[in-house]
Write a structure and sequence with these properties.
about 400 residues; alpha+beta; seven-stranded antiparallel sheet; two-stranded antiparallel ribbon; 15 helices; about 45% helix
């Protein structure tokens, strides 16, 4: 009996099983004998306007016209109603889950969000399609669908990457795992979030040295756009001949959202200007408001800075956020400031300690472990110095 016929028959049965699992949303009966060609497409959704959409998204699209199969497999779902959702988020133990749904319904969601939809048809053999479909079917089962989300190592895109690599017998890993990526995880994070002033600064503050290490193009595929780019470069050897993995590459919907930058820029000046503006504004207010106001502001800022430092230590030692440790920002957002802010009679020591820790920090981006934090330094150091100097100056005044 012909092995290719057997594979196609098994593939048809797998497609039929998928239809049975999703039968509540389909009106067409299942007949494996009607199966036509099973198509596998990689879907890449572009960035959206909302901050959590900045990194894009992707899914695997399975089509079989004979069966009426037209579904996407998506690994990017989470549920605000899950038990202890926000606690799990803080601990770095947030659960995501995978699901399949009709492609038309998923496309409508992304079009409504004005996000581009790119579709790449993949040249997989019947055996590879079967292996992929069986894996996807197993992943959406209730007992398997949940997974611990990780921003860079285990997200919606890396799950799609791994599924396709499984179907391709490890060809993607072999192709890209030893190729150095031109940008780091931090570079990509910076270029994709720079429009959001506070989100960008918050991520730069909370992300530690691990996101600055050199990564491979395999690692880089945590971004849907990089996975799509990688697949478009892959060539497979079949019967001694080279042929591209991507048979078709189509833009199903073109968004009007502004495209992301290809590389990060120097955005620290905007944070330095904002910080200096706050210092100037505080000084002007101090000349108008009661005499105790500058002291209140100085102690208030050092208290906030110290609390922020405690938060960094919590993410470093008390959670599973691997990318938050080690984090050199804990030196300028220092828990010690909580005590120094209210240590009367030691204002000079406070100023010397704040200055002594803050000023040398300007060299950190250029020293091991090479954590880039110029934006954080520009935003925080002027405020730290101004607060500490205010305490010292007021303490030095007679009476």
């Amino acid at each position: 009996m012909n092995s290719a016929w057997l594979l196609n028959r098994r593939l048809s049965r797998a497609c039929a099983l998928l239809l049975l699992l999703l039968g509540s949303v389909l009106s067409q009966p299942v007949f494996a004998e009607q199966s036509g060609e099973t198509e596998v497409w990689l879907l890449s959704y572009g960035p959206g306007e909302i901050y959590w959409q900045r990194f894009g998204h992707n899914a695997i699209w399975i089509r079989d016209t004979g069966l009426g199969l037209d579904h996407t497999f998506n690994f990017g779902f989470f549920d605000f109603e899950q038990e202890n959702f926000f606690l799990r988020f803080l601990q770095g133990r947030m659960l995501y889950f995978s699901a399949a749904q009709p492609a038309r319904e998923e496309f409508a969601v992304y079009i409504n969000q004005n996000r581009s939809i790119r579709a790449q048809k993949l040249d997989l053999s019947a055996d590879q399609k079967l292996r992929l479909l069986e894996y996807l079917l197993a992943e959406i089962r209730p007992e398997n669908r949940d997974y611990l989300y990780d921003y860079y190592n285990n997200n919606c895109s890396t799950r799609v990457r791994d599924a396709l690599d499984l179907a391709l017998d490890g060809a993607l890993l072999a192709e890209f795992n030893d190729v150095e990526a031109p940008q780091t995880w931090r570079d990509h994070t910076r270029r994709l979030t720079w429009r959001d002033f506070w989100l960008y600064l918050g991520l730069e503050t909370g992300l530690g040295a691990p996101v600055d290490r050199t990564i491979t193009r395999w690692d880089e595929m945590f971004l849907p756009e990089k996975l799509a780019q990688g697949l478009s470069e892959v060539e497979l050897t079949v019967a001694g001949l080279q042929r591209p993995l991507v048979l078709e590459d189509a833009m199903l919907y073109q968004s009007t959202v502004e495209q992301s930058l290809s590389a990060p820029q120097a955005w620290w000046p905007r944070y330095l200007l904002a910080s200096l503006a706050l210092v100037l504004g505080s000084w002007l207010l101090g000349r108008i408001l009661p005499a105790g106001f500058p002291l209140f502001l100085a102690r208030g800022w050092l208290t906030l800075s110290g609390l922020a430092g405690l938060s960094l230590l919590f993410f470093w030692f008390g959670t599973d956020h691997v990318v938050a440790r080690p984090n050199l920002n804990v030196v300028i957002l220092n828990p010690l400031w909580l005590f120094l802010a209210f240590w009367k009679g030691k204002e000079k020591l406070t100023f010397l300690m704040v200055a002594g820790m803050s000023v040398p920090a300007l060299l950190w981006p250029f020293l091991p472990p090479g954590q880039y934090n110029l934006d954080v330094l520009a935003a925080i150091v002027p405020l730290n110095l101004a607060a500490a100097f205010t305490l010292y100056r007021l303490a030095a005044k007679p009476g």
